[in-house]
Design a protein that fits this description.
This protein is mostly helical. The protein has eleven helices and three strands. Helix 4 packs parallel to helix 6. Pfam families: MerR_1, TipAS.
Length: 249
């Protein structure tokens, strides 16, 4: 079912002006636009809007929301779990602030005496830990740059990049039972490093080694990597670590 922008505004409580703004900045552009130029929102568009509103409620800037939603590593189910945890924490903090406010009213009336510490119970001006976690999972700089590079390539260029990556991975996976420090493996790993550096981000030895560690520390990476062969993620982490150490040496 497709909905007009006015219908979406009435359904969600988001103003038409805000929906137009989201479209203008590329945060939420409806899948369908009529020949007359009218926006029509699909069910998938509404799901994306819900995600945007959850993140907005948690204090995420629009720029960061866009980076998260566009990240290749973005996982909606994981995001919903993170949002639930964050909202529960926010509710708990608001409850503490309400109690502080009620006690302050009583203190002003002389009914109770609050300590200095009690007067500030519930206030928290630290950075949003959930935003930091979301950025680390889905919005890191390397991912942002890589995605922009892919977008600039167009569909045909993206297809070629995908084929090159698949070919590299299959060749490396065939070597996974060999010594990761061997010359043949290190030569192939060097090609993988060069491939990554051509995707819009220069991987320093530390960053390259860190990426290899991510392959085995994040089960999503491990699961996808090991589709090329059992133990492939561990092999890549070891080989990339060796190359990184040699580059630094």
């Amino acid at each position: 079912m497709l909905r007009k922008v006015k219908e979406v505004a009435e359904l969600t409580g988001v103003s038409i002006r805000t929906l137009h703004h989201y479209d203008r900045i590329g945060l939420l552009s409806p899948e369908h636009v009529t020949e007359a130029g009218y926006r029509q929102y699909s069910e998938r568009d509404l799901e994306t809007l819900q995600q945007i509103l959850f993140f907005r409620e948690l204090g995420f800037p629009l720029k960061n929301i866009g980076e998260i939603l566009q990240s290749p590593e973005y996982d909606k189910a994981e995001a919903l779990a993170l949002q639930r945890e964050a909202l529960l924490e926010k509710r708990s903090r608001l409850d503490r602030m309400i109690r502080t406010l009620e006690n302050t009213i009583q203190d002003a009336k002389g009914e109770i005496k609050m300590t200095d510490k009690e007067k500030f119970e519930g206030f928290d001006f630290t950075n949003n830990p959930y935003e930091e976690e979301a950025r680390q999972r889905w919005g890191n700089e390397a991912v942002d740059r890589s995605k922009q590079t892919l977008a600039d390539m167009g569909q045909e260029g993206q297809k070629q990049i995908g084929e090159q990556m698949d070919t590299l991975f299959r060749r490396l996976a065939a070597m996974r039972h060999r010594d990761p420090a061997s010359d043949e493996v290190q030569k192939a790993i060097g090609e993988w490093h060069a491939f990554l550096n051509g995707m819009g981000h220069t991987y320093s030895p530390e960053a390259f080694k860190g990426l290899g560690q991510l392959y085995i520390q994040d089960e999503r990476f491990t699961r996808n990597m090991d589709k090329f062969g059992d133990g492939f993620a561990k092999f890549m982490a070891d080989a990339m670590g060796i190359r990184a150490d040699r580059m630094k040496g």
